[in-house]
């Protein structure tokens, strides 16, 4: 389509001295999380290096380490041949690394020129030199091919695409040698993306390196030179050619197994009973549409789909935490319209964000376990702490909670054991239907196997389970029946035994990564 | 029966002790203040009758604000704030001392004060829970509005209570201890039980500690929010009666800046301003520390300005200690 | 009545019984006891040319300010040739400035104003004077002499002097050699409070006495009660007490009753009706009060009328009203209480 492909000339021939940035085994630890756990990255002058990875893979943390917002706890970063550890964002800027964040960090009520030179305004004896600032901004804007943007205009009045140009002007005002762009296309319309790519090509032609982050494979194919894939804070693949690496391989590196799954042995299909949960034509505009599904007692139903496919929103709507625009949810024949009704009816949910959505981190384990059932233990409004503790201890034991004991604060537990506490909460509450949203996120290998066993045991006892996971093997290994969700629609349903990972992956990926333009 | 306490748990009670440590710290501060008092005014402290009376005066001065602080502590633990407590007291005090209300006798006056407190608290709660106003804004607006209404009802005059029963509340002593002190003790004890032994308390901690988790566990967050502000209002109604009795009158300007004293006392008592944690015992100790400082400054004839500076210093110190302790926690939230 | 319905909405059925019976009547009704100059029999009382008086005072949050406004209204009502234009001064100096500007535009013959703060409203005074409208300043002086035609004010320092003199004389008469004297002040950051305390200290010094303990309250009953409780605890034995303000004095007296103390005598300040009644009955420790009377508002209206009509004060030789009048602070005791009863507010 576009005239002469700049391909071969733009892709630098990989000699070592062209490498401007190198990360080796970079680790960043937040309390309780290893956000980066051994990242390798190599960026050459004049290339567009794409970073690929799911939400939570560590891309944002990595950017912030480069930008001087966070400091790496271990590993080496080399920038233009020298060890690099920026103490502040200003230091990173001065060293020539500029970052354009997803949420553009422009000051709406300052002019284009003031934004471009924010923090390093040309000045004389403390007075800003407005004319100099304006003329230098004009030069940079012209270099970016946007001479039509007036340096004196207020940023507030600019459209999104122009704001992005201003962000880029800011990067150039620092004489950046590396520009990091975090999902720059997310705020742009289709034709504006083309313009963005034109600018990027001009920048790389001047020898500036670009780290480009996007979920859209088509963009990566179009603008990228090489790709590095992150998963769970680790580099799972480095320096793949952006245009020729098969989609399957990229997707596999992103979502594929980086750990061994140990599933409980297969089992017989659960008895055919009347469904416990009946969801009909459930719709929330912009999130999911016309979803119908059923879950029978003792059955595990798995929903596969990427982040953003509307899975979490669907679960929360079924649970009564979001109001549907249309459709019904019935639990054992009774409509569910609020969380209280859902819980009363015997529904429980382990949400995706365990810490922020499910746990009182500083409260003891047993109070977390009885959060949904303490009123049942209570007599005329007085809590029965002893009864709660005893029951929690029994549940903790059956879940093999480690370390044992229910008095320590939940904060001190590992991710897997925290998840057991959440599951235990619903066991204690006598739950008949459990909704699990990414139950093994942030859970280590050993604990995963235990959680799988717990989930299977629950089903054996007749509890219906509706499971959402972006890890396809998890869905296939646990569920009796598999539903595939893409961009808010249920596109496939089949018994787990009749579908394999490849088929699911293809179904999951088809629209969102390959066909451009997600909804 | 929980018989099987595992060995690992023996090391646990560290966290449970945290509150106790803080309370011991506050007792330490109280002891220190008394020691300063003994050193600076030995002639007063050498008289046992005076010392006994001084303790009672400190407790009595702490009584009304203490009752308000108990309610405030609940609101803060539940993740909110109530800036309108002083204004509610003024409105309740003024309303229960109008000539019309006084004609109903002591019972009518008490009923009116409590109903006004509950009613204003209900409005606060509904605005916050269902109107989705930020607690700070809603109760700030109520602060202004309730004082305005109080000024209108009283026609900006001081209303004298002619009811002997009401006025006797402040003078009655049982076994030598003022009735007001018993009221504070009763409210604090009830507050302690409510917070630590009832489902109401558990819900309060849950919605303050993690509102989303509480909601997704099936707790009716909105209803609980409303009830917390009603509870605070009720405490203000009780305090209004106590203050009216003490001053034998009420006016629109009464209980000036009580909101600040109550919040400060709750915080130095270990209540986390972001919610989810706090103790009633700590809050009462917080009030006693302030009351003792006032007393210390009074017996030494020192200016109130200095006293306010010392109070400010104590608040800052308490919060700094708190921040130091929860540093790891805040770091996690930043992520 | 809209207030009533609002209350109903607020509290639903539960309190309707109490709410419905609410009336505007309170325990001390200001209109019963306004201070009006009715001494007729001089030429000035005869109706003259019509005078429009603009009046502005802060919103009353205290009995004394409430009395200022009601006194002004009542006095104006005495004259058939006076029309009083009241403007709400709102809640702070800025609002009052705006209110004065509006008032100037209405071109009254003269303006009587009790400013929030003399310094902050100085410019407003000048503005009115320049517009040809004479200004009568009540109580809180303007720094610039060009900002007013007449200033009439109380004597805060004199109050302190009077209270100190009374206490000194009484104690000397009783033969107390080194008395323990307590003081309960108003809001400590106000200049008037400082002036009162300075006067008090100065007068006591004449007798060789000094203040043993001083607590500041906040001009509220509740604040008075708390401060008095602290003071009584700090001074287990006391000989005399001066409380700056009779409004907060209600709380001070309550605290004294609650502490069952009676070994001392107390002097009040301002001269409220409640205080004068108590002094007359002589059943409490309150034996005297030093005046700072809101009757100055009545006098201000009378004098404003004379200024507008170009008349002088008939007992003075001068043809015009003088530029400054400072009321003396008088001491009300049981002996002369009857005479002052009509001036209590």
TrEMBL record, chain A:
<dbReference type="InterPro" id="IPR003593">
    <property type="entry name" value="AAA+_ATPase"/>
</dbReference>
<dbReference type="Pfam" id="PF00005">
    <property type="entry name" value="ABC_tran"/>
</dbReference>
<keyword id="KW-0547">Nucleotide-binding</keyword>
<dbReference type="InterPro" id="IPR017871">
    <property type="entry name" value="ABC_transporter-like_CS"/>
</dbReference>
<dbReference type="InterPro" id="IPR003439">
    <property type="entry name" value="ABC_transporter-like_ATP-bd"/>
</dbReference>
<feature type="domain" description="ABC transporter">
    <location>
        <begin position="271"/>
        <end position="512"/>
    </location>
</feature>
<keyword id="KW-0813">Transport</keyword>
<dbReference type="InterPro" id="IPR050107">
    <property type="entry name" value="ABC_carbohydrate_import_ATPase"/>
</dbReference>
<dbReference type="InterPro" id="IPR027417">
    <property type="entry name" value="P-loop_NTPase"/>
</dbReference>
<protein>
    <submittedName>
        <fullName>Sugar ABC transporter ATP-binding protein</fullName>
    </submittedName>
</protein>
<dbReference type="GO" id="GO:0005524">
    <property type="term" value="F:ATP binding"/>
</dbReference>
<keyword id="KW-0677">Repeat</keyword>
<dbReference type="GO" id="GO:0016887">
    <property type="term" value="F:ATP hydrolysis activity"/>
</dbReference>
<keyword id="KW-0067">ATP-binding</keyword>
<feature type="domain" description="ABC transporter">
    <location>
        <begin position="21"/>
        <end position="257"/>
    </location>
</feature>
UniProtKB/TrEMBL annotation, chain B:
<feature type="transmembrane region" description="Helical">
    <location>
        <begin position="21"/>
        <end position="39"/>
    </location>
</feature>
<feature type="transmembrane region" description="Helical">
    <location>
        <begin position="280"/>
        <end position="299"/>
    </location>
</feature>
<feature type="transmembrane region" description="Helical">
    <location>
        <begin position="226"/>
        <end position="245"/>
    </location>
</feature>
<feature type="transmembrane region" description="Helical">
    <location>
        <begin position="174"/>
        <end position="195"/>
    </location>
</feature>
<feature type="transmembrane region" description="Helical">
    <location>
        <begin position="104"/>
        <end position="127"/>
    </location>
</feature>
<keyword id="KW-0472">Membrane</keyword>
<feature type="transmembrane region" description="Helical">
    <location>
        <begin position="59"/>
        <end position="92"/>
    </location>
</feature>
<dbReference type="Pfam" id="PF02653">
    <property type="entry name" value="BPD_transp_2"/>
</dbReference>
<dbReference type="InterPro" id="IPR001851">
    <property type="entry name" value="ABC_transp_permease"/>
</dbReference>
<dbReference type="GO" id="GO:0005886">
    <property type="term" value="C:plasma membrane"/>
</dbReference>
<dbReference type="GO" id="GO:0022857">
    <property type="term" value="F:transmembrane transporter activity"/>
</dbReference>
<keyword id="KW-0812">Transmembrane</keyword>
<feature type="transmembrane region" description="Helical">
    <location>
        <begin position="133"/>
        <end position="153"/>
    </location>
</feature>
<keyword id="KW-1003">Cell membrane</keyword>
<keyword id="KW-1133">Transmembrane helix</keyword>
From TrEMBL, chain C:
<keyword id="KW-0732">Signal</keyword>
<dbReference type="GO" id="GO:0030313">
    <property type="term" value="C:cell envelope"/>
</dbReference>
<dbReference type="InterPro" id="IPR025997">
    <property type="entry name" value="SBP_2_dom"/>
</dbReference>
<dbReference type="InterPro" id="IPR006311">
    <property type="entry name" value="TAT_signal"/>
</dbReference>
<feature type="domain" description="Periplasmic binding protein">
    <location>
        <begin position="53"/>
        <end position="311"/>
    </location>
</feature>
<dbReference type="InterPro" id="IPR028082">
    <property type="entry name" value="Peripla_BP_I"/>
</dbReference>
<dbReference type="GO" id="GO:0030246">
    <property type="term" value="F:carbohydrate binding"/>
</dbReference>
<protein>
    <submittedName>
        <fullName>Substrate-binding domain-containing protein</fullName>
    </submittedName>
</protein>
<feature type="signal peptide">
    <location>
        <begin position="1"/>
        <end position="20"/>
    </location>
</feature>
<comment type="similarity">
    <text>Belongs to the bacterial solute-binding protein 2 family.</text>
</comment>
<dbReference type="Pfam" id="PF13407">
    <property type="entry name" value="Peripla_BP_4"/>
</dbReference>
């Amino acid at each position: 389509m576009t005239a002469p492909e700049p391909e071969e000339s733009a892709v630098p021939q990989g000699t070592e001295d062209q490498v401007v940035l190198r990360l080796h085994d970079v680790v960043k630890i937040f309390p309780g999380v290893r956000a980066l756990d051994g990242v390798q990255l190599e960026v050459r002058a004049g290339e567009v290096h794409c970073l690929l990875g799911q939400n939570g893979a560590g891309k944002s943390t990595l950017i912030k380490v480069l930008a001087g917002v966070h400091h790496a706890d271990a590993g080496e970063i080399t920038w233009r041949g020298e060890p690099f550890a920026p103490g502040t964002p200003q230091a990173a800027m001065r060293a020539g690394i500029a970052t354009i964040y997803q949420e553009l960090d422009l000051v709406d009520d300052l002019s284009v020129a003031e934004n471009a030179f924010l923090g390093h305004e040309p000045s004389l004896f403390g007075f800003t030199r407005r004319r100099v600032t304006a003329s230098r901004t004009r030069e940079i804007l012209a270099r970016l091919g946007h001479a039509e943007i007036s340096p004196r205009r207020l940023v507030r009045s600019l459209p999104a695409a122009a704001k992005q140009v201003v962000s880029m002007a800011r990067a150039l005002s620092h004489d950046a040698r590396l520009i990091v762009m975090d999902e720059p296309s997310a705020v742009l319309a289709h034709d504006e993306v083309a313009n963005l790519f034109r600018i990027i090509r001009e920048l790389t032609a001047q020898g500036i390196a670009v780290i480009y982050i996007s979920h859209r494979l088509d963009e990566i194919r179009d603008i990228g030179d090489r790709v590095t894939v992150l998963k769970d804070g680790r580099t799972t693949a480095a320096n793949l050619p952006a245009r020729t690496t098969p989609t399957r391989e990229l997707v596999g590196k992103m979502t594929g197994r980086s750990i061994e799954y140990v599933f409980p042995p297969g089992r017989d299909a659960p008895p055919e009973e009347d469904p416990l949960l009946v969801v009909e034509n459930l719709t929330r505009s912009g999130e999911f549409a016309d979803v119908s599904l059923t879950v029978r007692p003792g059955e595990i139903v798995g929903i596969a789909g990427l982040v953003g496919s509307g899975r979490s929103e669907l679960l929360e709507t079924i649970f009564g935490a979001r109001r549907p625009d249309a459709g019904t949810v019935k639990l054992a024949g009774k409509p569910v319209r609020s969380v209280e009704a859902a819980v009363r009816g015997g529904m429980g949910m382990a949400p995706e964000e365990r810490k922020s959505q499910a746990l009182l981190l500083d409260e003891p384990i047993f109070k977390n376990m009885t959060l949904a059932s303490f009123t049942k233990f209570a007599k005329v409004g007085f809590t029965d702490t002893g009864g709660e503790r005893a029951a929690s201890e029994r549940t903790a034991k059956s879940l093999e909670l480690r370390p044992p004991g229910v008095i320590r604060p939940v904060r001190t537990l590992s991710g897997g054991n925290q998840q057991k506490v959440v599951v235990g909460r619903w066991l204690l509450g006598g739950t008949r239907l459990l909704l699990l949203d990414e139950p093994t996120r942030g859970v280590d290998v050993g604990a995963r196997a235990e959680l799988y066993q717990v989930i299977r045991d629950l089903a054996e006892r007749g509890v219906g389970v509706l499971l959402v996971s972006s890890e396809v093997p998890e869905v296939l290994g646990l569920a009796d029946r598999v539903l595939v969700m893409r961009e808010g629609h249920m596109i496939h349903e089949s018994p787990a035994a009749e579908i394999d990972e490849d088929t699911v992956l293809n179904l999951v990926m088809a629209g969102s990564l390959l066909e451009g333009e997600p909804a | 029966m929980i018989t099987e306490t595992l060995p690992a748990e023996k090391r646990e009670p560290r966290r449970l002790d945290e509150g106790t440590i803080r309370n011991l710290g506050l007792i330490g501060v109280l002891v220190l203040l008394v020691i300063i008092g003994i050193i600076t005014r030995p002639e007063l402290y050498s008289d046992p009758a005076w010392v006994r009376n001084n303790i009672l005066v400190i407790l009595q001065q702490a009584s009304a604000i203490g009752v308000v602080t108990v309610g405030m502590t609940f609101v803060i633990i539940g993740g909110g704030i109530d800036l309108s407590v002083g204004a509610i007291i003024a409105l309740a005090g003024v309303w229960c001392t109008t000539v019309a209300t006084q004609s109903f006798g002591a019972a009518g006056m008490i009923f009116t004060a409590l109903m006004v407190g509950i009613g204003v608290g209900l409005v606060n709660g509904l605005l916050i829970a269902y109107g989705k106003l930020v607690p700070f804004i809603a109760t700030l607006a109520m602060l202004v509005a309730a004082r305005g209404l109080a000024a209108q009802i009283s026609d900006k005059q001081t209303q004298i209570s002619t009811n002997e029963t009401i006025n006797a509340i402040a003078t009655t002593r049982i076994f030598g201890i003022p009735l007001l002190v018993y009221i504070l003790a009763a409210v604090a004890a009830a507050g302690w039980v409510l917070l630590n032994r009832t489902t109401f308390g558990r819900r309060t901690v849950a919605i303050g500690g993690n509102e989303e988790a509480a909601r997704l566990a099936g707790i009716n967050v909105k209803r609980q929010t409303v009830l917390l502000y009603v509870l605070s209002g009720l405490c203000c109604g009780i305090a209004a009666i106590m203050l009216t009795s003490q001053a034998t009158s009420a006016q629109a300007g009464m209980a000036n800046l009580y909101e600040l004293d109550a919040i400060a006392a709750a915080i130095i008592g270990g209540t986390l301003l972001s919610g989810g944690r706090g103790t009633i015992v700590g809050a009462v100790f917080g009030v006693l520390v302030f009351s003792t400082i006032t007393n210390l400054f009074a017996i030494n004839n020192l200016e109130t300005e200095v006293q306010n500076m010392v109070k400010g210093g104590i608040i800052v110190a308490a919060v700094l200690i708190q921040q130091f302790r929860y540093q790891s926690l805040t770091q996690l939230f930043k992520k | 009545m809209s207030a009533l319905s609002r209350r109903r909405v607020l509290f639903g059925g539960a309190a309707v019984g109490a709410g419905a019976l609410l009336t505007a009547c309170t325990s001390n009704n200001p209109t019963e006891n306004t201070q009006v100059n009715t001494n007729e029999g001089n030429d000035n009382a005869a109706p003259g040319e019509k005078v429009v008086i603009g009046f502005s005072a802060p919103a009353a949050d205290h009995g004394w300010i409430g009395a200022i406004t009601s006194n002004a209204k009542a006095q104006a009502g005495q004259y058939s040739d006076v029309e009083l234009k009241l403007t709400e001064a709102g809640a702070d100096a800025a609002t009052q400035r705006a209110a004065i500007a509006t008032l100037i535009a209405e071109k009254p013959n003269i303006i009587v104003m009790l400013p929030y703060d003399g310094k902050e409203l100085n410019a407003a005074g000048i503005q009115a004077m320049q517009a040809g409208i004479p200004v009568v300043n009540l109580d809180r002086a303007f720094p610039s002499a060009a900002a007013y035609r007449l200033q009439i004010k109380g004597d805060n320092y004199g109050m302190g002097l009077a209270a100190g003199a009374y206490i000194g004389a009484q104690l000397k008469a009783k033969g107390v050699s080194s008395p323990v004297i307590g003081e309960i002040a108003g809001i400590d950051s106000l200049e008037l409070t400082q002036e009162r305390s300075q006067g008090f200290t100065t007068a006591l010094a004449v007798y060789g006495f000094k203040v043993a303990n001083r607590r500041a309250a906040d001009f509220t009953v509740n604040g008075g009660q708390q401060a008095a409780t602290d003071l009584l605890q700090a001074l287990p034995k006391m000989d005399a007490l001066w409380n700056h303000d009779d409004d907060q004095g209600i709380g001070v007296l309550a605290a004294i009753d609650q502490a069952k103390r009676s070994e001392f005598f107390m002097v009040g300040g301002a001269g409220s009706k409640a205080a004068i009644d108590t002094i007359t009955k002589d059943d409490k420790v309150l034996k005297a009060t030093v005046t700072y009377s809101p009757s100055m508002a009545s006098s201000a209206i009378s004098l404003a009328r004379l200024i507008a009509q170009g008349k002088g004060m008939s007992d003075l030789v001068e043809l015009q009203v003088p530029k400054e009048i400072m009321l003396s602070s008088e001491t009300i005791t049981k002996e002369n209480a009857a005479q002052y009863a009509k001036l209590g507010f």
